[in-house]
Amino acid sequence: MQTVGRPFFPNPARSGLSCDWGYAPEPTTFGPAEPxxxxxxxxxxxxxxxxxxxPRRSTVILGSGLALLxxxxxxxxxxxxxxxxxxxxxxLDQQQQITDQQRELEEQRAQLDRKEQFGAAMQxxxxxxxxxxxLPYASLVPWSEVExxxxxxxxxxxxxxxxxxxxxxxxxxxxxxxxxxxxARSMASTxxxxxxxxxxxxxxxxxxxxxxxxxxxxxxxxxxxACVSSADPFVVHVSSDTRDTSTLTDWMRTGVAYHEYSHVLxxxxxxxxxxxxxxxGGNAETMAxxxxxxxxxGWTLDxxxxxxxxxxxxxxxxxxxxxxxxxxxxxxxxVGSLGVQKRTVSQ
Length: 347
Description:
Elements: H1 12-15, H2 57-129, H3 143-155, H4 160-188, H5 196-205, E1 210-214, E2 226-229, E3 232-239, H6 250-268, H7 270-276, H8 284-295, E4 302-308, E5 311-316, H9 325-336
Parallel strand pairs: 1-3
Antiparallel strand pairs: 2-3, 4-5
Helix pairs in contact: 2-4, 3-4, 5-6, 6-8, 8-9
């Protein structure tokens, strides 16, 4: 059996031989050689001397770990994204809530401001009405309309726009009423026509009742000297024929003016009038005659108008019925119940 040679460097001190440097010849063995030590192998390990391959288990574990790490990182990213989105939504919701609250506060301030303005407008209206309390024209202040303003403001209390319209309506009503008051004061101090008609009506109506001569349209018909319309109850229409006729005296014109003024009172006080009319069988004309007979001392329905020293006119003014004392008391009670009354209006 041969063994692999290795470089041999002789030791001259031991061998006493001289030789060249080189490889020594393979030694000759005498006798049986001792068996070389053999490596004990595991059974079936025929390839023990072959180089071993590196295990793949660590590679799989490392890959799995990396995958788990990526998954965990992705999950963390999505979780953070979800948290961020939730936080942003919460911030937006809070900002919207703040905006809504600010808008509500502004609306409430605007509503409160309009309520104060409406209250001021109503106070101005009441101040305009107060001097009218006691005037014998209930319809001069339509309380149903005033109450309607208050009711409308209550219904519209949460709407700034509609409350502004309510405020405007109240102011326009107040202005219109104030203008009528001023016109009445001016009318009471003048007599534009210089006629007994206007003088009597100014005295009775304190400037609120006016008269006009109708030249051609004759709204009162062919026979009536004067009339009043329910559509415009503060105007007495007088026929132009009554200006210069010789069959009428100023006294007669004055008495007819009282009669027509009674119609003004009837139209402007419908509720009280409906009750009083029952004493006259529902006849507004005989009731108007009774008013003149009651309040114009010396007034009668039949008159004598002299023409000359030997002739005269017999003129009947009115509707031919002279009321009795009981009916005249009804007239007094009726007049005493008329007029603008102060009321408290609540929303």
